[in-house]
Design brief:
Elements: E1 2-5, E2 7-12, E3 16-23, E4 32-39, E5 48-51, E6 53-59, E7 62-67, E8 71-76, H1 78-83, E9 92-97, H2 101-114, E10 121-123
Parallel strand pairs: 1-9, 7-10
Antiparallel strand pairs: 2-3, 3-4, 4-5, 5-6, 7-8, 8-9
Length: 124
Amino acid sequence: MKFTANYVEPYTNSITASVMFANTEENPDEPTFLSLQRPIEFEDSNYYFEINDQSYSRYGGLELVEFSRSEIVVVLEQSSVEKFDGNEDFRKIQVHFEINDAAFADILSTLRNIFEGHDIYHEK
């Protein structure tokens, strides 16, 4: 699955870290999105991801997350794809975006919080 996000929003407080990448223009009533989050108040908590709605969500279950200045690529473990009815469109999620330097720094920090302690996260 590939899409361009016109909405990118990181959020971190003392309890949770989350970032959402969404395309709200093509279908405003049901936007395409990728949400990544983790409750950071607990040191050993697992990350959570959601694709488009809660029926495509899971704690853990990612094989790879690569973040660069203009793209995030998320590869799901095969067990996640199978949980999502074998929908191979969700095997690899590529999201393109354009953001300013301050937003990039905020997202970078948030993703580091979300995936702290997990070796699946890489920066390009």
